Input
Amino acid sequence: MFTRIQAQVLGALGVVVVLGALTLFLVPASEPAPAPVAQPAPEVVDVPEEVPFVTHQVVGTSREGRTIEVYTYGTGTRDILLVGGIHGGYEWNSVLLAYEMMDYFEAHPTAIPADVTVHIVPVLNPDGLAQVVSGEGRFTPDAVRTDVPLGTGRFNAAGVDLNRNFGCKWQPESSWRGTRVSAGTAAFSEPEAAALREYVLAHMPESVVFWHSKAGAVFASECHEGVLPETKTLMQTYADAAGYKPILTFDAYPVTGDAEGWLASIGIPAITVEFHTHESMDWAENLAGVTALLARP
Ligand SMILES: [Zn+2]
Output
């Protein structure tokens, strides 16, 4: 015998059944019930090894056997390459800036957006640096010799201006201010320039910055096709943030075989950043410039 409550429940169920049947009857045949969404079988994938936030590798050797190193920070797919010391001891402050930037990123990993990897070559011309800085390895300003004439250490151990040894408009001789300088026996004849070329071709960075001194300006670059639109944006972004003067065309004297021009020739925007002096690393200016560059979408 049903209790009253059981009877009420059964009655309610009966109503539901009748309504359900009516619904089925009323739904037109042209609208079939949606097929259940197929659940993909769980994919068996190799779990990738975790990419470390900071890496360090030797990517080449100078003429005198010093290592050329690259440090990377972050794991994103936007690769940004920063290069110090292409002019060695003549521009030792660009090397100090690179070291300072490395320390900063190591201490402040959140300064690097998740989609970015920063690559830093602290010194592309270690032999030239050694002509001005006492001792090997990382240095402080008190290791910089003051008894050498200004201009010492600009070239590599073969007397080549590395920023004339790249593969755009290369000539055996080029100029630096009023003087003739050796550009090597061929484009990329120098191991330092060749090491950078190989690293660039392996990573194809989104943009490249070379640190120099001392014009207090950011220069765009070009090879045969004029300044790339992305290079103009890069120049303006860095110059605005750092407070350096943006200069679209370097025309103080003719330059051949410069690294930035070669990058332009393979479609990679590159800029030359010149600090205000040969001694200061313009830390606040360059940190602002680099930060603006990293944030760029
Ligand atoms: Zn320079």
About this structure: The longest strand covers residues 54-61. The pocket of zinc ion is lined by residues 87, 91, 212 (CB under 6 Å). The chain has one domain: 54-295. Residues 4-26 form the longest helix (23 residues).
